[in-house]
Task: structure prediction
Amino acid sequence: MVLGTYKQITLARSTDKQIQKISQDGGIATGLLCFALDEKLIDGAVVAGPSDEMWKPEPTVAMSSDDILAAAGTKYTISPNLWMVKEAVRQYGLEKAGIVTIPCQTMGLRKMQSYPIGVRFVADKIALDIGIFCTENFPFESLKTFISAKAGVDFGLVEKMDIGKGKFWVHTADDVISFPIKETHGYEQNGCKVCLDLVSELSDVSTGSIGAPDDWSAVMTRTDAGETIFSKAVDAGLIETKAMDEGKFGLEMLTKLATSKKEKAMKVIDERKAMGLPVPFKASNEKEGDPLANV
Amino acid sequence: MLARIKEFLGMEAKPKEEASEQEVEKVAEEEKAKPRIGYIHLSGCTGDGMSLTENYDILAPLLTEMIDIVYGQTLVDLWEMPEMDIALVEGSVCLQDDHSMKELLEVREKAGLVVAFGSCAATGCFTRYSRGGQQANPNHESFVPIADVVKVDLAIPGCPPSPEIIAKTVVAVLNGDMDYLQPMMDLVGYTEACGCDLQTKVVNQALCIGCGTCAMSCQTRAVTMTNGRPEINEDRCIKCGICYVQCPRSWWPADRINQDLGL
Result:
């Protein structure tokens, strides 16, 4: 159960040429949101949009496909998307909001829905949560260090960043530079170290590149809402699928990385508990059942 | 009735047949003896009570079929405080106000469950800033969460608590759903709240992940996000505690979330 509960797991990619060109991997988050918006399954979405500063995302309420396309592609730094959820409902008047979240954000969203203690009439307006796979996230200054010091590239020249095959990749107009992902260790944000979720176990649909070949994404549909929207997008021909490879570079890889994230986090959780430091998750000796569950 | 309320709230996405049978029995039982509820108004602004009434869709059947309001200023024409199953206490208590102190102590005697309803009762909230020296009584200086004076069983913070959490809590109480109520029981101990808890209890503890839930939840827009971390405008903070209460890194109700999602 290291991948959480899901209905189906598959490889997928957006069939739209423009989305393929500008988005990360299979462009599933971008493709699904555009589709959901066109079909009026959502009336807007909270995404990590562009800000005044290059590569520093800003939580944005996307009201059109253009807004969503402007937010395409992974930014390897913090975008507090939950911050904009109330704004999306109150100021933008969304009745059926979509949102893209990384696993920890999915958790904030779901806690707010189950316990909307001080959040009035927002929880019921969330129609679709697309969860992104996440191994860890980086403060913006860490990202700057990777680009300028480790890759030796001017921040303004970067066209795309990517993590895959054990490396951090920096693309410019005429060059691709990489350095081992190991070199990013120590630069991740500290809160990630107790995180037990790589695959957004609580999202409606989760997606990411781990376990997928180049230009494809792995997709897991989890809730009825997620399964419905994904199947509709596939039926409409906007997303194409193919079976996921069970082997070393497919499901096995995803399972291995999700397990390793959980095992590392459990070690930190147990150490913190032993020291009396607060942590919202159960220590190994407090867990009944699955020792790696996100509880 | 209960099913209707649950449907309205989107609770229990996939009820099992077995469970719903038990529920029906339980509800049938409960309906024989409707819980007697009192509303006690101390130093609060009535916003918590207003939030309760925002449950338009379910309020009428709730009041007529599921509970009995047996005590409350403006709600019930009754001088003497009766025995109650549940007392909702709105507002903090002023230590210099003999009437409020007497009423709170009496509530503890007369009520089975005392609920700190809203942040004033739960954490002191806005009244924490009081320093006395005002009209009508300059001596009214010290306003504290009710748990400082009497034993409290449940706390529902919020300025005000959302209409949904009030309805969800009522349903959980009617159902005897202690799992759902557990966080509210735990929150009884959270009486010294402040936006700075985000810094001391989350960021300082290496737990913040910059998700922005705190900034979304803040009911006075005192919290913004700077470089992926919460920043508190202390002039706007009313010490209600909601930012920390909603933070996914303060407490984590995993089982309930899975149940609600049908996962």
